[in-house]
Write a structure and sequence with these properties.
This protein is α/β, with parallel strands linked by helices. The protein has helices at about 15-30, 60-70, 85-90, 105-115, 135-145, 175-180, 190-195, 200-210, 240-245, 255-295, 305-315, 320-345; strands spanning about 5-10, 40, 75-80, 95-100, 125, 150-155, 190, 215-220. The protein binds phosphoenolpyruvate (PEP) and manganese (II) ion.
């Protein structure tokens, strides 16, 4: 029903040179594999959690972006958090904006922007609010629909309600899928960069989103990610991004329904295995800290009561069949041995 939409560009506009080298890299790397960029993104006004963090270059970056837009003929999009920013964008011929997840939590802010946009020719991409509230996301989109915006996208970027997760934000796919059911006419893009928070998970999150039927991707890209002034850990070089797009399996008519379903299930397994891998590593790191504490305080390495608690946790979550119980018992035995071995070192 929709073509796949690819949005890419840096988290933030930092300088004309940075934008220009990133845009050139993206355009050339994608062209080399017969792909193209639909929108070039860059944050200009950056809402940051910490007061001293880089908050974007502001208005000064708009002529740089206008220049990129004209040079490559690719529409540029920026995040807008307040109505007056719409005027500045318009002045520089930037006609696509996105609503960030932080702005999305405040209906007053959304309504102010929606009222100001009424009757104007903008494309609006509405990210999910940071909190996992489907109705709030729907309401935000409704406000732009009521303001007469015809070209709308939704963007799924996960939820900031889990500090335990391997990812920076909890994916909460079910909310995005419910949104898709509610607004079948609005294409929904996945932003794996902000879900992941780390470039190593972007490929599998992207594939999973495509398997779930998302209509495209917004991915952060910087020509020198390690030097980025914001979100350095999650940005891909233009070449890495092109490589990723080449590897991804976009739903197409040559895949049978069974192949599509199998791919989806396998991606979910990869996703779980990645998380298991990271969690096991984190677990061992904690074991090392515990070993240190026990050593300093002359405490025994093996504490049977504590281990009983660990076993109990796994039993609560276990499937009840015998094979699975066997597997868990073997796994716990290995885990315990390996933990004791580390502590004795
Ligand atoms: C961004 O896209 O750079 C951004 C700040 O996004 P979010 O609102 O999803 O955190
Ligand atoms: Mn970012």
């Amino acid at each position: 029903m929709f073509n796949t939409t690819i949005v890419a560009g840096p988290c933030a506009a930092e300088s004309y040179e940075q934008l220009s080298l990133t845009a050139k890299g993206l355009v050339e790397s994608l062209a080399a594999q017969q792909q193209q960029l639909d929108y070039f993104r860059a944050g200009v006004w950056k809402p940051r959690s910490q007061p001293d963090a880089f908050a974007g270059c502001g208005e000064k970056a708009l002529p740089w972006l206008q220049n990129i837009q004209e040079q490559y003929g690719i529409p540029v999009c920026v995040e807008v958090n307040a109505p007056e920013q719409l005027d500045l964008c318009e002045k520089h011929h930037i006609k696509t904006i996105w609503i960030g997840s932080r702005t999305g939590v405040n209906p007053f802010d959304i309504q102010e922007i929606a009222s100001a946009i009424q009757g104007r020719d903008f494309t609006v991409m509405v990210k999910n609010p940071m909190i996992a509230d489907l109705k709030l996301w729907i309401g935000n989109i409704e406000r732009f629909k009521k303001a007469g915006i015809a070209k709308l996208f939704a963007i799924h970027r996960g939820y900031a309600d889990s500090n335990e997760s391997v990812y920076r934000n909890r994916p909460g796919w079910e909310i995005a899928i419910d949104l898709k059911v509610h607004f079948p006419e609005i294409p929904i893009l996945c932003d794996p960069s902000h879900i992941a928070g780390n470039r190593q998970y972007i490929a599998q999150l992207s594939q999973l989103s495509l398997d779930y039927g998302f209509n495209g991707l917004m991915i952060e890209s910087h020509y020198q990610p390690e030097k980025a002034l914001s979100d350095a850990a999650q940005q891909l070089t233009p070449q890495e991004l092109a490589h990723l797009l080449q590897q991804l399996n976009f739903k197409n008519s040559t895949s049978s329904p069974a192949e599509n379903e199998l791919r989806k299930q396998r991606t979910q397994i990869n996703n779980i295995d990645t998380q298991l891998g990271v969690l096991l590593r984190k677990r061992m790191e904690i074991v090392d800290t515990i070993a240190q504490i026990k050593k300093e305080h002359n405490l025994p390495v093996v504490q049977p009561e504590q281990w009983k608690k660990v076993v109990g946790i796994y039993q609560d979550e276990s499937l009840k069949d015998d094979d699975f119980q066997d597997f868990i018992n073997n796994f716990l035995e290995l885990l315990h041995q390996s933990s004791i071995k580390r502590q004795r070192k």
